[in-house]
Design a protein that fits this description.
The chain is of the alpha+beta class. The protein folds into three domains: 248 residues, Rossmann fold, CATH 3.40.50; 106 residues; 137 residues, 2-Layer Sandwich (TATA-Binding Protein). It is 17% helix and 30% strand. The protein contains nine helices and 26 strands. The strands form four sheets. It has a 17-stranded mixed β-sheet that branches. A four-stranded mixed β-sheet has the order 12-22-23-26. Strands 4-5-6 form a three-stranded antiparallel β-sheet, with no helix packed on it. β22 and β23 form a beta hairpin. α2 packs parallel to α4 and α4 packs antiparallel against α5. The two termini are 40 Å apart.
């Protein structure tokens, strides 16, 4: 166990006070965010402190604050560290009046319509439960899905849970997550992780994109497209569990429901478990292998030492040498003609239906399109369902996706690792669990320059079971022509020393560490981004006495140069 004693406080003004509104009874659209970052100290629960947990909660809250400022949301509340207690997760049917406070105004989980939490977690397959580590031990350190929670008897509709093993398939198969609802519950979506999920500053990036993309559509599917990842250790396996009466209702919420379009799924007599085939995490079984992957991931073989760090510097042995490619995606790719004709392949007219800040929502006869040229992001969904399933060749789907993206404007020099996988669902009706069914075929395309990934940039293109292009989620802003810091003069030995210092600052003291290059983007006022070379210092997950602490990535400054 790598204990840390710091008690980092959440002091951002937006969360400490500016987000709070006068109490005014039940509100129509309310978000609660919980960031639990400080552990291992007096009165705290036994785990490693991860300061980024409150930063990710801040990122999630920031989006809903912008919705509120735009008149599209009502309230945002934030609690951190010791303020997040098990009693705020405890339903009246599972606790006493003293410790059942899940509907407590402006604090309880069931007093919000949308909930986000980032903490440590774990699961117990024998007891068919997942659990979340709280910020104080004064009540109980673990909020358990079966012992404490019953959601949707108040207001809660959607929960986004960034915690290890918070949505494990083994628990779902045994009916463990049905403890979250009653037949009359209003709760519909539990977005979580099968197995362990990695932690670092990169999580803020995908949460920011996920929140912005999910206002109207894809609150479940966007979670898979944004949070699914591979490469450093094993896979991050996001899952979306949707409760409701029929498979059609549950799929509609997963694919086309959003923060402001919380669809009714009827009585909670069944559930659907959506996931990516072949996802293979730590502390969870592989989900129906195998995904088609380019290139193959490497699995860490080192074991934890009692003292000091053991570095695997293989991936940084060769320093970056390439410059900026001659051909880059341009801002023209986000203009109407390029998006409509080259990416979507349609000549249909689009009409404006809404928006927020620089993001605009459009709709045609067969497409819904959300686009933000400033951030280089878009979400496109075909409004018609896929036709009957036909045999599909994964390599052809992958090549078709790459050709589509290239025609739209992404040059091959910006394309990095690619993985082809199926989106699957398993359905449960009144306790009977079904076999996996194909929802769609997904191509995950990650952005990279000279083999070095650009953090947070990806394109995920989905084809229906009939092979037709159905949806695209893209974050790929244009690169500026100058201002990048793409190389370093430091040696691997010097980088290891800096990594040691960075890890010690984060409270780590020992263990295996894998070093890898990455480019971190910085947004410019033009809508373009510049890239800065950093090294990621990745440590694997650690299972303690009461929970599993996430595999984490700590950024290391390498004094980059142009």
């Amino acid at each position: 166990m790598r204990l840390r004693k710091q008690t980092t406080q959440w002091t951002r003004a937006a969360l400490a006070g500016a987000l709070l509104l006068p109490a005014a009874g039940a509100l129509a659209n309310e978000t609660h965010v919980y960031g639990i970052a400080s552990f291992g100290g007096a009165g705290q629960c036994d785990a490693d402190s991860h300061p980024v947990h409150t930063k990710t909660a801040q990122a999630f809250a920031d989006y809903f604050t912008s919705l509120k400022s735009g008149g599209q949301w009502t309230d945002v509340r934030a609690l951190a560290n010791a303020s997040v207690r098990t009693d705020l997760w405890t339903d009246a049917a599972k606790g006493t009046a003293v410790n059942a406070k899940d509907t407590q105004l402006n604090a309880g989980v069931d007093d919000a319509d949308v909930l986000f939490v980032h903490t440590h977690g774990g699961h117990d397959a024998a007891s068919a439960r997942s659990f979340l580590v709280m910020g104080t031990d004064e009540d109980s350190c673990l909020a358990m899905t079966d012992v404490h929670m019953r959601l949707g008897n108040g207001k809660l509709d959607i929960a986004v849970v960034k915690a290890c093993q918070s949505g494990n398939m083994e628990v779902w198969e045994q009916g463990g997550y049905k403890e979250l609802v009653t037949h009359g519950s209003g709760f519909t979506v539990w977005n979580a992780f099968h197995g362990d999920s990695s932690c670092g500053n990169f999580v803020r990036r995908y949460l920011d994109d996920y929140a912005a993309n999910s206002k109207n559509d894809g609150v479940g599917e966007n979670w898979l497209d944004e949070a699914y990842d591979w490469g450093v250790f094993k896979d991050d396996c996001p899952v979306s569990i949707v409760f409701g009466k029929t498979q059609a209702d549950r799929k509609a919420m997963y694919a086309t429901g959003g923060w402001r379009d919380r669809k009714s799924t009827g009585e909670k007599t069944g559930s659907s478990y959506f996931f990516v085939k072949g996802c293979d995490p730590e502390n969870g079984r592989e989900l129906y292998p195998t995904a088609v992957d380019t290139p193959q991931q490497r699995v860490l073989a080192a074991t934890t030492l009692s003292t000091g760090f053991t570095f695997d510097a293989t991936a940084i042995a060769a320093p970056p040498t390439g410059g900026l490619p001659a051909v880059l995606i341009t801002r023209a790719a986000f203009e109407d003609a390029a998006v409509h004709h080259a990416l979507l392949g349609t000549r249909e007219p689009f009409r404006l239906t809404g928006g927020l800040a620089s993001r605009r929502d459009h709709e045609s006869l067969t497409w819904k399109l959300e686009r933000d040229p400033y951030s280089g992001s878009l979400l496109a969904l075909r409004k018609t369902e896929s036709g009957p399933a036909t045999p599909q060749e994964p390599s052809l789907l992958q090549q078709g996706t790459l050709s589509r993206l290239q025609a739209w404007g992404i040059p091959t020099a910006e394309v990095g690792p690619v993985r082809q996988a199926q989106g699957l669902v398993r359905n449960e009706e009144n306790g009977a669990v079904g076999a996996p069914e194909v929802v769609n075929h997904k191509t995950f395309v990650l952005r990279a320059l000279h083999g070095i990934r650009v953090e947070g940039h990806r394109a995920v293109v989905s084809h229906g079971v009939d092979g037709a292009f159905q949806r695209a989620l893209i974050k790929w802003p244009p690169l500026a022509r100058q201002g990048h810091l793409l190389r370093t003069l430091l040696t691997p030995a010097e980088i290891e020393q800096r990594a040691t210092e960075a890890l010690l600052r984060e409270g780590e003291t020992a263990g295996p560490v894998r070093l890898f290059w990455k480019y971190v983007p910085t947004q410019l006022s033009t809508g373009e981004v510049t890239l800065t070379l950093k090294v990621g210092a990745a440590m694997p997950s650690f299972t303690g006495a009461s929970s599993t602490e996430e595999p984490r990535v700590v950024d290391v400054d390498v004094s980059p140069v142009p």
